Amino acid sequence: MLIPVVLAAALMNAAMVAASAVSTILISDQLSPGLAGLPNTAGVLGTAAGALAVGKWTVRRGRAQALRTGYGVGVAGGALTVLTAVGAHVALLFVGMFLLGAGNAASLLSRYAAADAVPAARRASAMSTVVWASTAGAAGGPFLMAPSQAFARGLGLPAVAGPFLLALAAVFCALVASTYIPRVRAVVVVPDDSVAPRRTQVVLAAAVMVVGHLVMVALMTAVPVHTHHHGAGLGTLGMMLSAHTLGMFALSPLTGWCIDRFGTRPVVVAGLSLLLVAGVLIAQPGPAFTPALFLLGYAWNLCYLGGSALLVSAELESKVESSIWTVSALATAASPWLFTLGGFTVLSTFSCVLAIPLLLLTLRRTSPADRRHPTSLGS
User: Fold this and answer.
1) For residues 117-147, b (16+ Cβ closer than 10 Å) or e, as one string?
2) Which of 178, 248, 286, 363 lies 20 to 30 Å from 109 when distance is taken between CA atoms?
């Protein structure tokens, strides 16, 4: 069960990385460097809209069919990006990236398909395996971009079409892999009324996921600007981004094990605490800057998986995922502006303002139910 879910998620991530990278170059050349970020914005908005759609399809058609539909929409998006690269109107690129975003939403929500297929005591570990698979897609996709350009030239197509062809092939393979995901009845973890997740707890879990993502995106969006202002080359920037990506994904199995073993509350507290530590270290650039980016990535991982473990319905899962990606678009737009006002000091202060109240609220929300039922933040 886990193999097709993990494989599809990794392939979709590789497709999104390849298409996102080359779409900025295409728009920069054909329109203006100032508009180069618009295709990725379309992809982020597509992910937000796609999350809601996949959630509705899950309720109506079941988890497996919903994921296949999402990947199918992604295939259509990949095809439109290829058409743009070979001469079609540039507007199709934005539509294509939006539709690829729907495929990306299916990939992100597929972690719950993995959770449905295992006993309740292993749900977090199953989800963490799918998140960990994103490492392979994020790392492997860029290495195939140069060979894909040579492949496109060999077909008599523009070199820029190569990465889009790569993205199309990857998302198509993700669709094929998803056909092997069996129909599984969703697991709803509600042992009894005394420990059932209450509305306040679910809202708090969603807030942890959204804030964790918002803080990470706000800080990381400013990192390339910071390195450029300090005269650092792309090699240095690449090392920093690699450290951050490693923090985001590489330790996912450890996070899943901790949730299943100790419960969500300690993991969420650790995630919010690491957000604060990383923000303070990043605000004082120096030898600790790159390690702080790793900590920021792992803080996101703890918040993301810790919150995910408490969402036990397709409707909640899709709404929270959509909120995360909507916030991501806003954070990407606002981060450079805040950075120009006061550098990482302003961004880190903003992060603390968001994270500290959540941390205090999580620490306060404890009850006897927490000790009996570890997948609870309190009630």
Assistant:
1) bbeeebbbbbbbbbbbbbbbbbbbbeebbee
2) 363
